[in-house]
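Fold these two proteins, one after the other.
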Amino acid sequence: MKSLAIVILNWNGKHFLEKFLPSVCEFSGNAKIIVADNASTDDSVDYIRRCFPGIQLIINESNGGFAKGYNDALKQVESDYYVLLNSDIEVTPNWTLPLLKTMENPSVAGCQPKVLSYQDKTMFEHAGASGGMLDRNYYPFCRGRIFDKFEHDEGQYNDVADVFWATGAALLIRAELYHQVGGLDEAFFAHMEEIDLCWRIKKLGYSFKVAPSSTIYHVGGGTLPYLSPKKTYLNFRNSLYMLVKNHDGLLFPKLFQRLSLDGIAGIRFMLRGEWKHFASVFNAHMAMYKHLPVLMNQRKEIKKQSKNFNSSGLYRGSILWARYVQKVANYSDLDQRLFDSK
């Protein structure tokens, strides 16, 4: 039987550990449970040592963000599969079993459960919902969530399906592949690093899936609130980073198109008086220009390794046009013929 390690990255999250770690311990079968602490300044570490002595504790020397935190921790974890699990998640009985069943197909690199909101368990949650997709301009969205529009879970996305990306909030992934591609990109710090990881692995021909018979409940915004200007900055910057690294075909026409669309979003922030968010978009673009030489070198290396790109989950339409012009609110109302499948 394949071994499974559930690794929870923690930073000053004792309140989440108190609330949700018991359910992880109770409902995760024979999986090894590990807490990787990202240099917390609360008493998270003492709490784990005192109340969960059987849990392995990894102490990272600094808070290098989600990406570096996991990379540092997973170098110390031997297992066939990893689950990267946020600390603000309530799991349900036997939640790992459908995920492990999905991984029996050797062409599947990773998968995720269905992610519902902890605050309203009838609603899909922002971070992954029932599987992540990208549109032609590389804006992410999900089955059950398009931008700020969340659907009620009525079983409409209960089928196992190919997705473009699986959420980093609860990502089961083959350990060998994680390390083969170098893990998460630490320059991202946090946000969209799992999309970049999935994209790089899909360029090797593997797929990602959602297994919705596994359900979890996510608080969300536990580290950065969803309306935080810093979150806006990281999302815009990191989306540009992964575009430069992974886009197939001519780069600069696509990059110019994407920068223009981002500019429209920035103007929208400005007209609404949201100056900090406007500054976040501007600063994200400046950061991309500064980091461009590194990104271009990464792009060359990724192209060298790329073979048989599995583009399933790529939406050949514009999700911006669908949502804000055509007023499409539900994933199921998108033209399904525009999705790549393999």
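Now the second one:
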Amino acid sequence: MSKTITMDELLASSNIKQLKQGDVIEGTVTEVKKNEVWVDLGPNGVGVVLRREISGIQSLETGKKVTVSVLDPELENGSVLLSMRRAAKDRGWDELIRLQEAQEIVEIQPYDANRGGLLIEVEGIRGFLPVSQLAAGHYPRVSGADKDEILQKLNALTKKTLKVRVLDASKKDNKLIVSEKEAVRDEMQDRFEKLKVGDEVRGVITGVIDFGAFVNVDGIEGLIHISEISWERVENPKNYVKVGQEIEAKIIGIDKDRLSLSLKQMKEDPWLHEVKSFKKGDTVEGKITRITPFGAFVQLSPAVEALVHVSEMSDDESIDPEKLFQLNEKKEFKVLDIDAEGRKIALSLKDSKKSK
């Protein structure tokens, strides 16, 4: 007596793989209609791709091989419901995971921006490039964290080709995060190793803020602190440098992935030349530039500033510097001491009066 074989047993004993939702398979286009495409799946029968699930319908023609994803393995008419769009996305996630594991570098062109970063697409999957993951040359350095200015700088990066690495690719969470910083890290490290304190470098000002200016040195970020912009006293860095300006600076420090730079050290210190005009015991005229509880600062020449300590203002120990001086007021002082190495000059107001 022969044994009855079920369809499941027949499928199991053959080379035919029983389709299930989510499977990605290949087929051949047999018919292209206005709202659907029919696909020959070989041993798995025939399937249909509805218009909304078709990718690139204009390029489809009978006999073309296509990759499709199974949405429903068995419709009422016995066909398989398929999606070309889903298949493309599934392949995209597989490729993104491979790129992440291999740490490969890919090129992208951001299609939009918001204040948090750039909107991107890789392998058909949309993702995000956060501001924090931009390379130094593209990081939007703005004064006072102006959100509108940040967005303006980010918008300027859309449509530009950037090199990135995949930081996080999660099909389950539908999350794709990429990093430009990681893509250039190895290259930046090689450049860092060739630099040393004392080197003179060329760069472009990328941002001017209250405490200094940021510089792009061949892709490496540098900072010129306000104290290193000029030998003069700098109140506002924007009066000395502008965004986009090309400058030459000296490296005075290297810390992790940033350079500390100096503009003023590219020039001879004028203080050393001008201080030769003054000698201990001289009576000099100077302009009050700052008044503090412990004394007042006095400009003796364009580059030379001196200090008259509160103890050298008057024999009255309760003297208030703010009542004795006014900003930009000119007075005569006696030079008490000159420390050329420390770039300091001590003055006396009371001794100047006594010598008259």
